[in-house]
Amino acid sequence: MEEEKEVMEVEERVVEVEHPLPCLSESDTQGIIKGRALFGYVGIEAVLDQMRRKTMKAGFEFNIMVVGQSGLGKSTLVNTLFKSKVSRKSCTPNYEEQISKTVHLQSVSHIIEEKGVKMKLTVIDTPGFGDQINNENCWEPIVQYVNEQYEKYLKEELNVNRKKRIPDSRVHGCVYFLPATGHWLRPIDVEFMRRLGKIVSIVPVIAKADTLTLEERLEFKQRIRQDLQANGIRVYPQKEYDEDAEDRILNDKIRENIPFAVVGTDKEHQVNGNKVLGRKTKWGIIEVENVAHCEFAHLRDLLIRSHLQDLKDVTHNIHYETYRVKRLNESNANGLALSPLTLENASHTV
């Protein structure tokens, strides 16, 4: 006769710890808490404080790329965003604006500190983009740069004795400046965003939006959204990356405002006894941080206040992961070692 096996069912129970918690004996717990006694406050939520302290000690890294033709106010807007002189122009002594014969990328890094929180900010500028008569393939150096940063990170990850914290030079976000023409997107804008939108998070903005009337601005934004949809261009934040209903509601509001009509300036003016950032005209002062005048505040909230960490997460979990899988598949096909990254390989992702 086969022996019967005794099966013990274990019931999982969630124990909520309240403050203060009295000592409980076995007879009082009714099977929920076992043991002689539980003394005082446990402090599970203190984990958040521990994480915060460690993160503040380590600091943050954020790399932002600005793309657009000369004269659209890229440097001014970046300075306005971070309320510091962080652009290439403001950091280069005796800087003179010159039209580059080819697109070449320049990066400037800074340590910004606010209320004890340190962030290493790197601004990548793209002088020469869209400034030539023939702009064929002018996006290729930018595509290559983005992929080169993924390659650097991948090689660091694959090292046997890798660093405890891998330096992150990957582009977390790209602000693309559209001229305020009031018409449709230019072919160069369509081609750039179509290619780069697959490997980096793109946020399109209408530069110097104060040159458009409110009606022109609204019509131009609608035309751009139509162009983006018609050409299958993916701009941040993408609907498929919404994690829950709360994210979807917030991101839907952002998507309604894309592209952001922005104005940038680093000059302050007196308005009703208060100092405000603004552009002075014959008709009055355009207040940069006033949402009734432009959408700069919405852009700043997206890039810094609400979505900075999400931009980094999307870069790591989506764009970099796609690149990593592709490169490792290539290496498995060719042997154990990673083959050198070429422009041809870099373009496969676009």
Main attributes?
single chain; alpha/beta; Rossmann fold; six-stranded mixed β-sheet; three-stranded antiparallel β-sheet; 9 strands; cell division; GTP-binding; G_SEPTIN_dom
The gist of it:
This protein has 350 residues and is of the alpha/beta class. Helices cover 37% and strands 16% of the residues. It has eleven helices and nine strands.
Describe this entry's structure for a reader.
Keywords: Cell cycle, Cell division, Cytoplasm, Cytoskeleton, GTP-binding, Nucleotide-binding. It is found in: Cytoplasm, Cytoskeleton. This is Septin-type G domain-containing protein. InterPro entries: G_SEPTIN_dom, P-loop_NTPase, Septin. The protein has 11 helices and 9 strands. By secondary structure, it is an alpha/beta fold. The protein has a single domain (about 60-90, about 100-330), classed as P-loop containing nucleotide triphosphate hydrolases (Rossmann fold, 3-Layer(aba) Sandwich). Helix 9 (about 295-305) crosses helix 10.
Number of helices: 11
The Rg value, from CA coordinates, equals: 26 Å
Strand and helix order: HHEHHEEHEHEHHEEEEHHH
CATH 2nd-level architecture: 3-Layer(aba) Sandwich
CATH class: Alpha Beta
Query: What's the CATH superfamily, by name?
Result: P-loop containing nucleotide triphosphate hydrolases
Average residue pLDDT: 81
Give the total of beta strands.
9
What is the spatial order of strands in the main beta sheet? 2-3-1-4-5-6
> What structural category arises from helix and sheet content?
alpha/beta
- Can you tell me the number of structural domains? 1
Distance between the termini: 68 Å
Output the CATH topology: Rossmann fold
Overall geometry comes to: globular
Fraction in beta strands: 15-25%
Low-confidence stretches: 4-15, 17-27
Helical amount among residues, as a percent range?
25-40%
